[in-house]
Amino acid sequence: MSAPRHTTTLAAFLLGLAMLLSGCSGEKPHWNGKDISGVMPDLEFRLRSVQGDTVTPGDSAGQVRILFFGYTSCPDVCPTTLAYLHQVLEKMPAEARDDVTALFISVDPKRDTPERLGSYVSYFDSHIVGLTGSEDTLRKLAKRYRTTFGYGDADNDGNYAVSHSSAIYVFDGKGRIRLLLKQDMPQQQAAEDLTRLARQDLS
Fold first, then answer.
1. In what order do the strands lie in the sheet with 34-35?
2. pLDDT by residue (tens digit) across 95-140?
3. Of the four listed, 49, 55, 69, 180, which is most buried by Cβ atoms within 10 Å?
């Protein structure tokens, strides 16, 4: 026995209303990391790869990009962060992991030669790409993303420290800023965010 027509019509109306209200709620999706969508400019740079080639965001278009400033002589923050990112990437499903590229931008171009930078990033993960540029280019890029860096005094051996941000920026496949991650965030949570973002870009 079929349901009365008015009952069926009412059910369809209520279902449509629920979908409409859900679509108009304006509720933002939940992320484990800090959602900073729209608060910074899109991904834009012109840097030098470890092979000496010019690299722009267009070379990795469609990929989720993780951006981190540092330098290879960093005694703590950089190796810890890159090891953290490696563990995060390892926790992602393989198909999503291949749609993520981490950009390690050296702000120490004087010491970080292409050979040194290439060897450094390859030690951590094949999904991590080393980039650098002139000091002027790097300062403009750092300013674009509301950060800075500075050089300490050199010792007798010419060694010096470089102060820099520990922020981990995440851009989607279209180069739009989406998330800010921190090292104290559980690796699984960061992996979930990156996986979700990668799958959104594929849909």
1. 34-35, 177-181, 168-171, 64-70, 100-106, 128-132, 47-49, 54-55
2. 999 999 999 999 999 999 999 999 999 999 999 999 999 999 999 9
3. 69
pLDDT at 166: 94
Instruction: Yes or no: say if 135 and 109 are a contact pair by the CB < 8 Å rule.
Output: yes
Q: What is the pLDDT of residue 13?
A: 43
Q: Is 150 exposed, middle or buried (0-12, 13-18, 19+ CB in 10 A)?
A: exposed
By C-alpha distance, which of 128, 35, 120, 50 is closest to 90? 128
| Token pair belonging to 140 | 């403009």
The answer to which of 11-20, 21-30, 191-200 has the lowest mean pLDDT is 11-20
- The separation between CA 73 and the C-alpha centre of its own chain, rounded to angstroms, equals 22
What is the rounded (10 degree) CA torsion for 98, 99, 100, 106? 90
Contacts of 120 (CB under 8 A, 6+ apart): 72, 112, 130
